């Protein structure tokens, strides 16, 4: 099931990105589209680094005060995924990346991730599959 979903995502997402790039290119021009893709990559990398440092500092503060930084670990996962999305070329992944990085919208993804993890733990289903 998971493998089929991944294959579908690896086909559908790049196709949608190509469509979006072509549409934007027709509206604003090829070089401007290219520049916009480069700009979103640079700005995205900067934002991801800035937010990752904030999350890391918050996690260190929690650990120094004897607390488990659960929330900040989930934030770190979201920021990491958002950074990867922002570094990949395309406008749709850039939108997803920005939503994952910005603290206001990241809260929603963090909560969804937390609920998903709690369900997996309560059902006893493993997260990782190791094959030899």
According to DSSP, the number of beta strands is 0
Indicate the structural class. mainly alpha
Major sheet? none
Give the count of helical stretches: 5
Average the pLDDT over all residues and give the rounded result. 88
Report the radius of gyration as a whole number of Å: 18 Å
Whole-number total of structural domains: 1
Characterize the structure shown.
This protein is an all-alpha fold and 132 residues long. The protein has one domain. Helix 1 packs across helix 2, helix 2 runs antiparallel to helix 3 and helix 3 crosses helix 5.
Topology of this structure?
Elements: H1 2-28, H2 30-64, H3 70-87, H4 91-101, H5 103-123
Helix pairs in contact: 1-2, 2-3, 2-4, 3-4, 3-5
Keywords for this structure?
mainly alpha, single chain, 85% helix, flat, 5 helices, 132 residues
Summary of the model, kept short:
With 132 residues, this protein is mainly alpha-helical. It has helices at 2-28, 30-64, 70-87, 91-101, 103-123. The protein starts with a helix and ends in a 9-residue tail after the last helix.
């Amino acid at each position: 099931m998971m493998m089929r979903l991944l294959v579908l995502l690896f086909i559908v997402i790049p196709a949608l990105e190509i469509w979006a790039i072509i549409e934007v290119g027709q509206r604003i021009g090829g070089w401007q589209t290219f520049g916009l893709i480069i700009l979103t990559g640079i700005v995205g990398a900067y934002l991801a680094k800035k937010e990752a440092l904030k999350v890391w500092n918050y996690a260190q503060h929690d650990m120094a005060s004897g607390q488990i930084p659960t929330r900040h670990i989930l934030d770190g996962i979201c920021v990491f995924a958002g950074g990867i999305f922002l570094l990949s070329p395309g406008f749709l992944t850039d939108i997803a990346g920005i939503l994952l990085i910005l603290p206001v919208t990241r809260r929603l993804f963090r909560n969804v991730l937390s609920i998903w993890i709690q369900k997996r733990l309560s059902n006893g289903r493993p997260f990782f599959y190791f094959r030899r």
